[in-house]
Amino acid sequence: MSGFGSVSEFAACDAAGQTWLTQFRKTVASAATTTGAWVDYSYFAGSPAANFYASSPYVAAEVEADKGIKLPSVSPATQHMRLLNVMTANTASTANSRQRLILCDYLLYYPFIDTDAVGEVQVMTNTVDDDAVPSIPRYTSGLVVAVGQSAASTTGIFTFTYTNQDGVGGRVSQASYTFVVAGGGQVAAASGTGASYNPFLPLQAGDSGVQSIESVTFTQAGGGLIALVIVKPLFHGYVTQECRTTSGVAFGAADEFQSIINHAGAPQIKDGAVLSFLGQGSQGSLASSQLVGVLQTVWN
Amino acid sequence: MGWTSQDDLINQLTTNGKGDVVTMTKTLNSAGTAGAWTLLSPHNGWPIASTFAGTDLTYVPTDDTWSQGTIYTGGDVSTATKHFLTAGGQVTAAAGAPWYIMAIDLVGYVPLTTTNVSTTGTKTVTMTAIGSSGSKGDRYPAGQGLRLFVASSVGAMGANAPTCIINYLDTAGGAGATTTFTSTASMGVGQLLNTGAAANKYNPFLPLAAGDTGVSDIVSLVWAGTAHASGSVIIGLCKPLWTLPLPATGLYSKMDLVNALPSLPQIKDGANIQFLLFQTGATTSAGTVNVDFHYGYGG
Question: Which of A81, B20, B152, B172 is buried most, with the most CB atoms less than 10 Å from its CB?
């Protein structure tokens, strides 16, 4: 049996060695980020190493395992988050680095989509087109993040077609806006007129997920490159205060989230998961700030 | 056994005196490495700095009578069990924040010096496998829950950054190997060579083979590539106990270990309690680290 039948089973994992504690440290690139917009921590340097979505343009690919937070594979048991503890530091400025975080399993991505190709249907390559191309791993569908792979100079508008959670192809997303970003790794999509920042792109009404993306069409140029990344959100958390010393005064806080106690259940992390965070700064730029944390899992 | 209720816990502490508080303070001998972890035991302070004596490539089991700087927690309490109740800590340093402090039970170590560090190849370890005898050396039966790290032991490492892998036996006696990591040149005393903020680093412990839940025997360490020019290291074998975040210099953090889940991490009879420090930036040399914890026992 996998999972946990009781609190005592959950607690007993530690003594049985059925636990893993890992720790991460990522540094946001020096390019300024937009207040309220999201960043993709997988793109930034540190431990684990940076993930630049560097593979063949338009071709579906999986993020390499070493770009995610390292966890063991435990099948036939199932692995669950026991606790997450996070802190952030911003030594480059006095801007506030408090932020919302979403822990995601990175599933599939489509790199180097040209936001200047107005009117051109940019066709993606999927496993149905080439059986050497991977299909979505671990889950039947996920949500889509538009990650900038370069700076972008202006506001673009695009839609994409996709196969939804039920395997129905030809679905058409709602229009999303790219916006001006100073560098790669910033989530470059919004709704409204381009200033309502969302981590995930809005889908056709009634859809809850995406299995694959078939094409992308820009109707207004955005002046940059993006990757569309299908992720599975696993956990929402936050950093309430950054850690730093200013004018001799030290302040900061750590934020810890314990499964069972702090929220219902314990999020499952599937074997082979490529884990990283999306972060949303709430005041000023996150440029050059550091996100550090401890993630502990248990399995049964 | 521990306690049967909150009332029992309070009674054992306040009526029967079955508990105490202990402290540790260390001054960092050298500047830290951003994104890396440091074993504090070889740094000066209280308890005394460890020198990791022993014969090269021979496993040295340690317990709460270790002469090189352990924290005494009242001795054996069996058939009762001893547990952490709270943990607190503080770092004062001009740079390096934020930090994590992790308490570990250092079950033992393998020292490697001179040519066992400055040459590549397989370095075979002599060790009697951890069993289930109930002795202090076997306090984690068959090595259940034990983790591995490699640390600079008594001085800074020399130049070069070889790759490294550790072969071990798992809790069932099956052969396993850690993920290969890339060392770092010139890391200071106590710093964990397998940690850092770069590719092929694993913080703070080396990943075990799929399905493994512990380590019963250290078989060998294999250096490859260009060997460190000099230095001495230990292979550390430990049980992680708790982790405490320290957000900024001078700020004291306190953690309640009674109401967490799972709660009350156990201090096994014979536990050699030591501490690892994670630093986001490079902690200033001569920075000070203070840790305290309360413990208690029932039965």
Answer: B152
Question: Å from B149 to nearest chain A CA?
Answer: 13
Would you call B245 an interface residue with chain A, using a CB distance cutoff of 8 Å?
A: yes
Burial state string for B215-230 with b = 16 or more CB within 10 A and e = fewer than 16? bbbbbbbbbeeebbeb
Q: Is residue B96 part of a domain?
A: yes
Residue B248 has its nearest CB partner, among A243, A294, A296, at: A243
Which of A48, A155, A68 minimizes the C-alpha distance to A109? A68
Residue A144 has pLDDT above 60, yes or no: yes
What's the token pair of residue B157? 């490492």
Contact A291, A82 (CB under 8 A): no
Minimal CA separation from A213 to chain B, in Å: 30
Q: What is the pLDDT of residues B246-275, one digit of tens each?
A: 999 999 999 999 988 778 999 999 999 999
**B1 located within any domain:** no
How far apart, in whole angstroms, are the C-alpha atoms of residue B252 and residue A15? Answer: 29
Residues of A in contact with B196 (CB under 8 A): 47
- Are A118 and A221 within 8 A, CB to CB? yes
CB atoms inside a 10 Å sphere around CB A209: 19
Per-residue DSSP letter, B179? P
Q: pTM, whole model, 2 decimals?
A: 0.92
Residues of B in contact with A47 (CB under 8 A): 35, 195-198, 201, 203
Q: pLDDT digits over A171-208, tens only?
A: 999 999 999 999 999 999 888 888 889 999 999 999 99
Contact call for A251 and B202, based on CB within 8 A: no
The C-alpha angle with vertex B194 and arms to B191 and B196, in degrees rounded to 5, equals 75
Q: What is the pLDDT of residues A247-263, one digit of tens each?
A: 888 888 899 998 888 87
B248 contacts A252? CB cut-off 8 A: yes
DSSP conformation letters of B116-137:
HHHS-EEEEPB-PPP-SS-SGG
Whether B100 sits inside 8 A of A290 (CB atoms) is: no
B202 in a structural domain: yes
Q: Is position B34 within any domain?
A: yes
3 state DSSP class of B225 = coil
